[in-house]
TrEMBL record, chain A:
Domain GOLD, first and last residues per copy: 31-129
Family: Belongs to the EMP24/GP25L family.
Protein name: GOLD domain-containing protein
Subcellular location: Endoplasmic reticulum membrane; Membrane
Automatic annotation (TrEMBL), chain B:
UniProt similarity note: Belongs to the EMP24/GP25L family.
Keyword terms, alphabetized: Cytoplasmic vesicle, Endoplasmic reticulum, Glycoprotein, Golgi apparatus, Membrane, Protein transport, Signal, Transmembrane, Transmembrane helix, Transport
Membrane topology: Single-pass type I membrane protein
Organism annotation: Mugilogobius chulae
Subcellular localization(s) per the UniProt record: Cytoplasmic vesicle, COPI-coated vesicle membrane; Cytoplasmic vesicle, COPII-coated vesicle membrane; Endoplasmic reticulum membrane; Endoplasmic reticulum-Golgi intermediate compartment membrane
GO process annotations (BP): protein transport
Name assigned to this protein: Transmembrane emp24 domain-containing protein 7
Function: Potential role in vesicular protein trafficking, mainly in the early secretory pathway. Appears to play a role in the biosynthesis of secreted cargo including processing and post-translational modifications.
Pfam families xref list: EMP24_GP25L
Length: 219, 257
């Protein structure tokens, strides 16, 4: 006979439903954007859950079926790589093909103002990047790995991520260096050109005024 | 306290040596094996046969608490708040850094469920704050850019709650690990800190690069603008001077220097 005390389990379950992720409030037409600067070939998994404020019960309840969120993901070249509408609870995945700043934007698709009724929508969001996005239980089951093998696999994934990031870092440092060198060049050219313009203007002014005064018979 | 008797659950009459508790979240399954486990006190206990199985409740907590790392844009005169429900006794860390915008500073405030301010700093570029949750409930932290009139800021924050989820659902810290496994664990921790340093380095580099690009565009505009102004001023000087000596004037006016 096995007896399980479920009180703590329910308590934890309660906290789980609330504590699973960070949340924030979003207005009806508001668009919230998050930036992820990632190297290429990195997978990102985003999970979100929405809750709507119920005025009668004065608490946040899971949103109705009609209310969904529109998710748009842009790559560093401002090209849209994911643009989809999900329900009140959703999960979106994408893999980056170019390194750089990717922008993940969320906004609700509500066109019925009565739904929000002046309140806010509570959005629970969780974004997992790279190695954190891996589901190790799935990998272990698929490849039939032992505990030790799974741990080593996790280490390999982590080192992979570090390597990609270092690569990306090299590319960014190059861009930074190019920008600095371009600024250096521009300052150099500008100072030379400015000096030349100044001298030329000065000479022109003097010559012009001299000929003007001579014409006026003042000199 | 609610009790669920295992004999009421379907099983084929054999001695139960594995209890699987399936949570409501799809895809996540916690398997709790029966067996003897040492103290400390826990919230969940399972009795198998005649032995009491102690399962660390903290283990269940470990499965569920995670960290959140986000970078978002904070428009001028705006305030953005984030909330998280935290259980008593959890060690949490809030780290933030301003990536781009203006003077690279932001106001940050962290409040506990009763509204007491645990951390408040104005115009900070980056900071790290660790605290242990003294109460159960919703903790709120806000970033404010209300002091700025026209600069948008990009803010990165990392809010770690508790420990990272363990690799195996039935992992138990008190269980002895083999040398290989403990070597793996220490390498994992070291790599985590490497990734953390990399993130901070990336943010610093992004900050430096954004300043350099700003400088570059400013120099470009300024040099062109100044050349144009120079030409305009010098030509108008000459024109003005000529107008002083125009034939219409009968008296000789003293030309101002």
């Amino acid at each position: 006979m096995v007896v399980v005390r479920m009180k703590s389990v329910f308590l934890l379950q309660l906290f789980y439903s609330l504590a699973s992720s960070l949340y924030f409030h979003i207005g009806e037409t508001e668009k919230k954007c998050f930036i992820e600067e990632i190297p290429d070939e990195t997978m990102i998994i985003g999970n979100y859950r929405t809750q709507l404020y119920d005025k009668q019960r004065e608490e946040y309840l899971p949103a109705t079926q009609g209310l969904g969120m529109f998710v748009e993901v842009k790559d560093p070249d401002d090209k849209v790589i994911l643009s989809r509408q999900y329900g009140s609870e959703g999960r979106f995945t994408f893999t980056s093909h170019t390194p750089g700043e990717h922008q993940i934007c969320l906004h609700s698709n509500s066109s019925k103002f009565a739904l929000f009724a002046g309140g806010m929508l509570r959005v629970h969001l969780d974004i997992q990047v790279g190695e954190h996005a891996n589901n190790y239980a799935e990998i272990a089951a698929k490849d039939k790995l032992t505990e030790l093998q799974l741990r080593v696999r996790q280490l390999v994934e982590q080192v992979d991520q570090i390597q990609k990031e270092q690569n990306y870092q090299r590319y960014r440092e190059e861009r930074f260096r190019q920008t600095s060198e371009s600024t250096n060049q521009r300052v150099l050219w500008w100072s030379i050109v400015q000096t030349l313009i100044l001298v030329a203007i000065g000479i022109w002014q003097m010559r012009h005024l001299k000929s003007f005064f001579e014409a006026k018979k003042l000199v | 306290m609610e009790e669920v008797r295992m004999d009421s659950l379907p099983h084929n009459g054999d001695e139960i040596d594995h209890v699987a508790l399936r949570w409501s979240h799809p895809g996540k399954q916690l398997e709790v094996p029966c067996g003897l486990r040492p103290e400390p006190p826990e919230l969940l206990s399972i009795m198998c046969g005649s032995r009491l199985l102690q399962v660390l409740c903290a283990q269940l907590l470990w499965v569920w608490v995670m960290g959140s790392e986000l970078t978002f844009e904070l428009p001028d005169n705006a305030k953005q708040c984030f909330y998280e429900d935290i259980i008593l006794g959890t060690k949490c860390t809030l780290e933030f850094q301003v990536v781009t915008g203006g003077h690279y500073d932001v106001d940050c405030r962290l409040e506990d469920p009763e509204g007491t301010t645990l951390y408040k700093e104005m115009k900070k570029q980056y900071d790290s704050f660790t605290f242990t949750a003294a109460k159960n409930g919703t903790y709120k932290f806000c970033f404010s850019n209300e002091f700025s009139t026209f600069t948008h800021k990009t803010v990165y924050f990392d809010f770690q709650v508790g420990d990272d989820p363990p690799l195996f659902p039935n992992e138990n810290r008190v269980t002895a690990l083999t040398q290989m496994e403990s070597a793996c664990v220490s390498i994992h921790e070291a790599l985590k800190s490497v990734i953390d340093y990399q993130t901070h380095f990336r943010l610093r580099e992004a900050q430096g690069r954004s300043r350099a690009e700003d400088l570059n565009t400013r120099v470009a505009f300024w040099s062109i603008g100044e050349a144009v102004i120079l030409l305009v001023v010098s030509i108008s000087q000459v024109v003005l001077l000529r107008s002083f000596f125009s034939d219409k004037k009968t008296t000789t006016t003293r030309v101002g220097s």
